[in-house]
Specification:
CATH architecture: 3-Layer(aba) Sandwich
CATH topology: Rossmann fold
Largest sheet: 5 strands, parallel
Distance between the termini: 13 Å
C-alpha cells in the first residue's frame, strides 16, 4: 500500500521538502499532496472569476477555488501533517485540522512547544505532536512499515 500524506499549513519554510526527503531516503511507501504553497498563486486563485474592488470578495472567491483542491485531497488522504509555524497565524491549517478531525482522518501536528497552549484543541484531536520534520518521518516510517 502507498500511503497518501496530506501536508497542510505553513508555507514559508522547507519542512515539506525535509519530510519528503527523509521518507525518500528510507524508501517509505508514501506519496505527498498539499494545498497550493505559492502564496501569490493561492491569493489569486479566484481572479479568473472576475475583478473585485473589495479585498474581502477576492479572498472569498480564492478561498472557494482553493477549497476545491484542499477538500478533495483531505478526503482522499490516509494521514496528514498539519504544520504551524511561529511567524504567521495559520488559520487555514487549523481549518484543515478541523476537517480532518470531522472526517476521522488521523493527523500529526508539527509545531514548536511555545504554541502548545493556543493549539490545545487542535493537538487534542491529533494522533501525535512532533516538533521536527525528522520526528514526522519516524512516525511515518513506523506507521507504514511496522
Amino acid at each position: 500500500m502507498t500511503w497518501s500524506v496530506y501536508l497542510s499549513g505553513e508555507i514559508h519554510t522547507d519542512w515539506r521538502q525535509q519530510i519528503a526527503k527523509g521518507c525518500e531516503d528510507l524508501n517509505l511507501p508514501v506519496s505527498f499532496c498539499s494545498a497550493v504553497t505559492d502564496h501569490d498563486a493561492s491569493d489569486a486563485a479566484g481572479d479568473v472569476l472576475g475583478p473585485d474592488s473589495d479585498g474581502f470578495w477576492r479572498d472569498h472567491k480564492s478561498s472557494k477555488v482553493n477549497g476545491i483542491r484542499t477538500r478533495n485531497l483531505i478526503a482522499k488522504c490516509d494521514i496528514a501533517v498539519v504544520r504551524f509555524g511561529d511567524k504567521y497565524k495559520q488559520w487555514n491549517a487549523a481549518f484543515d485540522a478541523g476537517q480532518l478531525a470531522a472526517l476521522g482522518k488521523p493527523y500529526i501536528t508539527l509545531h514548536d512547544a511555545d504554541i502548545i497552549h493556543p493549539l490545545k484543541e487542535v493537538d487534542s484531536a491529533a494522533m501525535g505532536w512532533a516538533q521536527t520534520p525528522e520526528q514526522v518521518v519516524e512516525i511515518l516510517r513506523y506507521v507504514t512499515t511496522a
